[in-house]
Amino acid sequence: MENVPVLLASDYRGVKGLAVAVKSAIENRDCPLAFFIFERGIPDSEKQLLEANWRENYPDLPIQWLPVEPNKYSHLRKWRGGDMIYARLGLDKIPGLDRCIYLDIDVVVNFGLKELFETDLEGKVMGAVEEYPGQLNSGVLLIDVVSWRSQNLSEKILNNCYENGWSSDQPGFNAVIKDWKRLSPEWNCANTETPEKILHYKTHIKPWQTTEPNMSLFYEWLDRTPYKGWRPEPNQQEIKESFFSRLYWWLWRRYNRLFPKRK
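^ thats the sequence. predicted structure below, dont judge the formating
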């Protein structure tokens, strides 16, 4: 079997999450993998530490770092102070990529990815888990990149985010892509009590920002990376900004549902 391409995106602030997402995917693999990582601001020394750790039991693991320019998405609203969430939309520029799995960095992979990668998309461009009726969660995606390119979806989603003032690209995914394959919820599970194939921390505060008991699985995996023993110090400003950002955009969406723009 050829390598299964797995895409992620991170800046230095999320490097602990990146370390865990990749490490857990590697250790639970049931097929050969290849990682494509959109990154900004991660020092070369840090990349070398991560690569050495990821290759401990997988010496020939392919890893490709894809630098993202500092101002590439400066025209878009930032998500929790950053814009790296949009970087994954550069997937259409990766040469030779026909089909891939995308993972957010706030996940723990508990199961091999072969089954997910081989899922029949039934002619649809993408597979995702339904979060709300008719609404996908974009934290775990299976993408037919050939079809994605032919429909120019990266540009359409970015334009939709800009025109509507979204603070992330997930609303853009839902606005632009109406026909997508529903994946089993076990591939994007938020239940930390009984995590399934992929545990996704869909919380406002990310696991590397807190040591709450429900984050214990994340720290079990973190201790198998170069960051063994690291724990965060409380950052009240970051927590405050996250809360008020979420509140603002919730109120903004409610307003627009009650008073939709006339076309």
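The radius of gyration is 18 Å.
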